[in-house]
Write a structure and sequence with these properties.
The protein is an alpha+beta fold. It is built from 28 helices and 28 strands. The strands form five sheets. Strands 16-28-27-26-17-24-25 form a seven-stranded mixed sheet, sandwiched between helices. Strand 20 and strand 21 form a beta hairpin. Helix 7 runs antiparallel to helix 8, helix 7 runs antiparallel to helix 14 and helix 21 packs parallel to helix 23. It starts with 10 loop residues before the first strand and ends in a 9-residue tail after the last helix.
């Protein structure tokens, strides 16, 4: 399968990936380390947007990356300014691909050592609480509590102080600031009680609250990082498809091993049985079968022979082949797939913007609530230490970690598992809109049908030789890539007809082709065009109606005498073309209809032929589900009319319909861009895939309902995550303020909220296409 995205190349400058987005706009990606919550995201975005020339900046907590759009042509100066802005905001600028490329330890226990030490130090502090229900009253001496809690507070918790100081320096707030204030207050209160109160060593101390909260928060962050490694598994699996070595064949025909990164277009490479293909190219020698399942989701091996395309990363079967390299590095199919999935995971979903606005005021609000809790209990006559501990519990439970993770983790898991099955989602907005679709419009040729029409019949006009007519049609279209032109050329070659070039030829968009052949003006095109030109079609009227009723597409070959001005062309032959529906197309459309989605077919064919094909696929013309005789420049208008409800597409009408367009050709690109969601077939044209929000990596239409299904499930996970993230705070803050939650319980609940959000998102990894 040949898939070349019309996206820009991946460039890496000083750890950033850069791509032009228009003549005056450029897009850069930057890794950002040290973010822990939604408030961090908001502060980094504000810092980046203040850099001169930056038009927009979006930050993703789950991928720990920032996407910056800016004006200008020089990357170097802006790169330094962006890095400085991130550092001054209290965070660490990193390489753009660090989240995917720099995973040095992929074990499930990576990074657990500091957390384990914290748990061991906290165990003696927690033990008395566990023994109390058993009737055992025991408490370590105050100096032991101090000795155990202090390393946890200022060693394990050092990262909290560092991040909190950065937030204060940037006049902002984050999770670490809440944890630092709360645990430090508990530690200071306990130290003061021990050293200066009249009860001394027998005073009620809260060292366990400070130490356990710090440890639980670190445990929660470790679990988050572990889950993040699983959400990025799809990207890292794609990176792993790149083989390290390639067997280069030199000019003497000898093989030598070189790093695959050193391959260049034009090289010849030997690919042995069982090896991964090191680059994109065509088979120059040999034949084999290749496994492209990681790239396209197609589970069956695909036969490849001389001249056929091989995609880098595919697994060679049992045959040795020689590959003529055509694309390497950032221009390869694999690189574009990785880039597309990364883009989808880095771009912020619309619902996340609402969360970001809420998080911008969340931390100051929580600090205000904690102060109100302290003051309220103080005024009610409760002793100061109890009031302070309840205020600490408010600070701890309200940490907005889960809010920042709710949306991006679900998007990462959803887009990652979709890519595994051959569904590439370009941006989160397409993913979020797709679940609300109520209408899907399909292009006919190449999307619903196989896109390989055959010349079924040629009916010459009276006095015209059939072979001469076929030769004339083939010569006129010998340089054309149109599907019907290919069918004519194929039929001519099968008949052994020698095909020469025309004297001239030009395409008439949406109508046909005209030119000069053997000194005569020749035209071939649709009945509509021939009627416009005044061609006498009466001899072919009955034949045309008969063929169209059977679902054939008809064209007319006509000649024009250049010596006679203004005379209409004379008909020479009627050509009937047939194209078979794709296997599984009818079942896919039935699945969509069963899910409540209206199916519409858009075709440039005459109504009779279009309706015959539609009925074979289960599409109902009587309900307005067939839009026929639509010229290429009219597809976008048809989409706009469907969206506005101006076209009757089904039994019910709605004021505003959410419409997707599925297509594969160059002429589908405007309609794909005009639709609420564009879905391109991966076997189609580059520009179609560039205009679409979702790309189906193989021509199987069953992926269309699968794309809607993963969209629905991902959006459902986002909603569930946001509900639980808000629910923890809505329920937890009042309970903490009223004294029903200790700081230890608050810390556990806060950690649990983040872990539950991540775990819920990871359930998407079990998804499989329905059916």
């Amino acid at each position: 399968m040949v898939i070349h995205f019309a996206a820009t190349l991946l460039l890496h400058t000083n750890g950033m990936s850069t791509e032009p987005t228009s003549v005056n706009l450029r897009s850069l990606e930057l890794g950002v380390g040290g973010m822990t919550c939604a408030s961090c995201v908001t502060r980094v975005e504000k810092a980046l947007k203040k850099v001169p020339g930056v038009q927009d900046a979006t930050v993703n907590l789950a991928t720990e990356s920032a996407r910056v759009t800016w004006h200008g042509d020089k990357d170097e100066d802006l790169s330094a300014q962006l890095r400085r802005a991130v550092r001054e905001a209290g965070y660490e600028p990193r390489a753009a691909s660090a989240a995917f490329d720099n995973v040095t330890d992929d074990s499930s226990w990576a990074g657990f050592a500091p957390v384990g030490i914290g748990l061991l130090l906290c165990a003696p502090l927690v033990l008395p609480m566990l023994l109390l229900p058993l009737g055992v009253s025991w408490m370590p001496p105050a100096w032991v509590q101090f000795a155990l809690a202090t390393p946890v507070q200022f060693g394990l918790g050092a990262r909290f102080y560092k991040a909190a100081w950065g937030a204060l320096a940037a006049r902002g707030g984050n999770m670490e600031l809440l944890v630092s204030i709360g645990t430090t207050a508990a530690w200071l209160l306990s130290t003061w009680q021990w050293l200066f109160s009249e009860h001394g060593a027998h005073a009620h101390l809260y060292f366990e609250s400070a130490a356990v909260v710090v440890t639980l928060v670190r445990l929660g962050k470790w679990l988050e990082q572990r889950a993040k490694r699983q959400t990025t598994a799809a990207i890292r699996a794609l990176h792993a498809l790149r083989p390290e070595l390639a067997h280069l064949i030199d000019e003497n025909g000898l093989e030598k091993d070189i790093p695959a990164d050193e391959l260049r277009p034009g090289d010849h490479v030997a690919v042995r049985p069982g090896e991964r293909v090191p680059a994109d190219g065509r088979v120059a020698e040999g034949a084999t079968q290749v496994d492209e399942s990681m790239l396209t989701g197609e589970p069956l091996p695909v036969a490849k022979g001389v001249g056929e395309q091989l995609t880098g990363g595919a697994i060679n079967g049992d045959g040795r082949v020689v590959l003529h390299v055509s694309a390497v590095g950032s221009q390869s199919v694999l690189a574009h797939i990785i880039r597309l999935v990364q883009d989808a995971q880095a771009v912020k979903a619309p619902v996340q913007r609402l969360v970001d606005r809420a998080s911008a005021v969340f931390v100051p609000t929580v600090i205000g609530l904690a102060l109100l809790t302290l003051a309220g209990w103080w005024l009610l006559g409760v002793d100061g230490q109890t009031a302070l501990i309840r205020a600490v519990a408010v600070l701890v439970i309200a940490c907005p970690c889960a809010l920042g993770l709710a949306t991006p983790t679900a998007i990462m898991a959803g887009t990652g598992v979709a890519a595994k099955f051959g569904i590439l989602i370009k941006d989160a907005e397409a993913l979020e809109i797709a679940h609300r679709l109520d209408t899907i419009a399909f292009d006919k040729t190449g999307t619903l049908t196989e896109g390989r029409p055959r010349l079924l019949a040629l009916y010459p006009a009276p006095g015209v030789d059939e072979i001469a007519a076929l030769r004339t049609a083939a010569r006129l279209q010998s340089g054309s890539e149109h599907l019907l032109a290919r069918a004519v050329l194929r039929a001519a070659r099968e008949r052994g007809i020698e095909i020469g070039p025309p004297q001239s030829a030009r395409a008439v968009p949406g109508r046909g082709t005209e030119g000069m052949v053997a000194g005569h003006g020749v035209l071939i095109g649709s009945l509509h065009w021939m009627k416009e030109l005044g061609v006498a079609l009466e001899p072919f009227a009955a034949l045309a109606d008969e063929q169209q009723a059977q679902g054939a597409t008809v064209s007319v070959l006509a000649t024009r005498n250049p010596s006679v001005r203004n005379a209409p062309p004379r008909p020479m032959a009627l050509l009937a073309f047939g194209d078979q529906p794709k296997p599984g197309a009818a079942a896919a459309l039935a699945t969509l209809r069963a899910s409540g989605v209206q199916v519409v077919m858009i075709s440039g064919d005459n109504r009779g032929a279009a309706e015959a094909v539609a009925r074979s696929l289960g599409i109902r013309p009587e309900f307005g589900e067939v839009l026929a005789e639509v010229l290429p420049d009219g597809k976008a208008r048809a989409i706009a009319q469907l969206q506005a409800g101006e076209l009757q597409a089904g039994e019910q009408t709605r004021p505003r319909r959410i419409v997707a367009m599925v297509g594969d050709g160059v002429n589908d690109a405007p309609a794909l861009a005009a639709a609420d969601v564009g879905i391109a077939m991966g076997s189609g044209a580059d520009v179609a895939m560039h205009a679409a929000g979702i790309t189906l990596m193989r021509g199987d239409l069953a992926l269309a309902p699968a794309a809607l299904d993963i969209s629905r499930r991902t959006v459902a996970k986002i909603r569930q995550n946001l509900f639980w993230a808000f629910a923890y705070n809505v329920a937890g803050i009042p309970l903490a303020a009223l004294g029903y939650l200790s700081p230890v319980m608050a810390g556990a609940a806060m950690a649990l909220s983040s872990v539950s959000v991540m775990s819920n998102a990871l359930l998407l990894r079990r998804w499989q296409p329905p059916g």
